[in-house]
Amino acid sequence: MTVATVTTTVVALDMALDSFDDQYRGCRHAMTQLLPALEHSEFQKNPQLARLWVEAAVRWQRRGPPVTPLSPAQAIALMTYTTKDVSKEFNAAVRVAGRSRREYRHNFHLKALHFLLTDALATLRDARGPRCHHVFRGVRGLRFQARPGDTVRFGRFTSTSLRKEIAQQFGTDTVFQVRTCQGVDIREFSSSPGEEEVLIPPFETFRITGVSHEGDRAQIQLRSTGTFSKYSCEWLRRDITGTTWGTGTPTVGTGTAMRGHRGQ
């Protein structure tokens, strides 16, 4: 629930259950096989995204061939996402694409980017080994209804910084202090490496461990508790009419707006 006030918007910090949160467990290879057709279709629907993708690809090539476990498509997806014009629109769509299977299939035209970002973060986590990060996120123009002890998700790809002073450049109305164990340091793939960005996926769950206020400003402490997803390999499943939307073996699922930092 969102409530507007004179100067700020009040947002409930909750599980963000309307978000599209697929982790693609067990179907990453099958999804990769479908990418060319999916990208072609979505780039036709979104010429601006297609243009920004090409620009990101050029920037990636100019950096030279780094030693990385990522495929070129995964790396370019991260560079495209970290373009401000992309992250804001993309995350607005991710936050509501999980309202229903129909919403995801028919109205969410960023499926390829969602998969590539999720797959890139998983690939980097696998290559680097398990690790947690203490990060910060600054938010402007929003206050949050947050109760210590609650379990919550961001429900979007959430940009944070390893440095508090950088996070506060994006806003100080609410500052999150987050211990994330699913978020990944992506600075070497970012369009703005100086931001020292750690990107948190939509499906990571957190416990609210503290909330403090100073005037109109707030600090919220979050600690990772695991993951939760309503959706699992959704693009590869059959809809109720029997139409096949992808190929591969379907698996069963395991199962808010946050303006600030990137995507404000």
Automatic annotation (TrEMBL):
Q: Per the similarity annotation, which family is this?
A: Belongs to the Arg-specific ADP-ribosyltransferase family.
Q: Which GO terms describe its biological process?
A: response to antibiotic
What PANTHER family does this protein's entry cite?
Answer: ADP-RIBOSYLTRANSFERASE, GPI-LINKED NAD(P)(+)--ARGININE ADP-RIBOSYLTRANSFERASE 1
Please state what the protein is called.
NAD(P)(+)--arginine ADP-ribosyltransferase
Q: What is its EC number?
A: 2.4.2.31
What UniProt keywords apply to this chain's record, in alphabetical order? Disulfide bond, Glycosyltransferase, NAD, NADP, Nucleotidyltransferase, Signal, Transferase
**One Gene Ontology cellular component annotation held by this UniProt entry:** cytolytic granule
Q: Which GO terms describe its molecular function?
A: NAD+ poly-ADP-ribosyltransferase activity; NAD+-protein-arginine ADP-ribosyltransferase activity; nucleotidyltransferase activity
Report the top EC class in one word: transferase
Pfam families xrefs: ART
Q: Does the keyword Glycoprotein apply?
A: no
Reactions that this protein is recorded to catalyse = L-arginyl-[protein] + NAD(+) = N(omega)-(ADP-D-ribosyl)-L-arginyl-[protein] + nicotinamide + H(+)
Please indicate if the UniProt record lists NADP as a keyword.
yes
